[in-house]
Design goal:
Distance between the termini: 52 Å
Number of strands: 28
Order of helices and strands: HEEEEEEEEEEEEEEEEHEEEEEEEEEEEE
Structural class: mainly beta
CATH superfamily of the largest domain: Galactose-binding domain-like
CATH topology of the largest domain: Jelly Rolls
Radius of gyration: 34 Å
Number of domains: 2
Shape: elongated
Helix content: under 10%
Strand content: 35-45%
Largest sheet: 8 strands, mixed
Length: 384
């Protein structure tokens, strides 16, 4: 049974959705707050745990105190329990030491890159002994040799940056020897996994500049910020629907009638050119065919655009039979949407739905020697 303390620590180690949305490469650099990971797996024996000023005391094996002070963002991760802090304590493969990458304590970080090539990996870590200073780095489920065995020897008992890889000829590693190659632009998954328990990680930086060395807290995290989603700009008050038939996509204007529609592209509406006097009397028409084989019954909503210079009339027809007549309301908000519902309209395969409208003047808007006309604008039909 999990103890309340363990549940508290586990909750502290889970990032919020906004934190886990990932990171973006900016000018060849990616900066990651270690505690803001997307997922943790293979954590049954050892586990990355988050520490910040609010973390309660714990009872796991741990050779040192917390090191929140000086951590970027006031938080960091540590692999616990920590049962091997020096050479005299027993080394147990698969428990307190894991030379193979991807086998224990795997964290993932979504990253998005536009520039491809070699990225040198830097880790900001806190080491208090010889057996808490190793880590592995991978990409997209693979663990290349160049990303294994990040090592920290210098800068003990303080937050220190390293891009050194432990090698047989140099256990402390040589600077600028840890990297991953990203060959395709777009979305990738950066991964880290345990080499030694007790490892404390504050931040990761990936840089395409071979000579770059982060200092202090390092650069600000380059979090991925998604673009704002487009808000609804038409059919604004339609809360539910089966189909939306927009005029420019579904309805064909009647080319044989005395009064034609034209497409007002800025409003995605059919309209009548009321500047032509002959078009001011009578109705224009556009039609669409119901192409579904199965009959269905809908509430039909005609969506029009109310206009300040007139209150146009509209007719809705099915197979040339009028099923609804409407007139736009007066408005002071030009091109505001108006909604007219016809309930329980049954449509069969190949039924023809037509919409007619006319031009109208309310005598309120001067234009030339007379007054302006509304143009019978409408933007579509909704089947609910």
């Amino acid at each position: 049974m999990r103890t309340p303390l363990l549940l508290t620590l586990l909750a502290a180690a889970v990032p919020t959705l906004s934190q886990a949305q990932g990171y973006q490469e900016v000018d060849g650099l990616i900066a990651i707050e270690a505690e803001d990971f997307a997922s943790q797996t293979k954590a049954d024996i050892r586990r990355w745990m988050k520490f910040d000023a609010s973390t309660p005391a714990h009872s796991y094996a741990d050779a040192d105190v917390t090191h929140v002070e000086g951590a970027s963002g006031g938080a960091y991760l540590e692999i616990l329990p920590d049962t091997r802090t020096n050479h005299d304590e027993k080394l147990i493969h698969g428990e307190n030491f894991q030379p193979e990458p991807g086998k224990m304590c795997v964290l993932t970080y979504p990253i998005n890159v536009t520039q491809t090539g070699r990225y040198y990996v830097w880790g900001r870590a806190f080491s208090t002994g010889p057996e808490d200073n190793g880590l592995h780095v991978g990409l997209d489920g693979k663990w290349p040799e160049s990303g294994q065995r990040l090592q920290l020897c210098q800068g003990k008992h303080q937050w220190t940056w390293s891009s050194q890889q432990r090698r047989p000829e140099n256990h402390c590693g040589t600077p600028f020897t840890l990297w991953i190659d990203i060959e395709e632009p777009g979305q990738h998954t950066l991964m880290i996994s345990m080499r030694e328990d007790g490892f404390e990680l504050d931040k990761l930086v990936l840089s395409m500049d071979e000579g770059y060395t982060p200092e202090g807290l390092g650069p600000e995290a380059t979090r991925y910020v998604p673009a704002e989603l487009p808000e609804r700009s038409e059919f604004k008050e339609i809360s539910h629907y089966k189909y939306i038939w927009k005029v420019e996509e579904t309805f064909k204007a009647d080319e044989d009638g005395d009064i034609p529609f034209y497409l007002h592209k800025g409003k995605n509406a059919y309209a009548i050119n009321a500047a032509k006097v002959p078009y001011r009397k009578g109705f224009a028409r556009a039609s669409a065919v119901y192409g579904k084989k199965k009959s269905a019954t809908f509430d039909l909503v005609l969506v029009t655009l109310a206009e300040i210079d007139g209150e146009s009339e509209y007719r809705v027809l099915v197979n040339d039979k009028v099923i609804g007549k409407f007139q736009n309301p007066e408005t002071e908000d030009d091109y505001s949407e108006a909604y007219f519902k016809i309930k329980d309209v049954t449509l069969n395969e190949n039924d023809v739905i037509s919409v007619e409208s006319n031009a109208h003047t309310n005598g309120k808007i001067p234009e030339g020697d007379g007054t302006a006309f509304s143009r019978g604008r409408w933007i579509g039909v909704v089947l609910q």
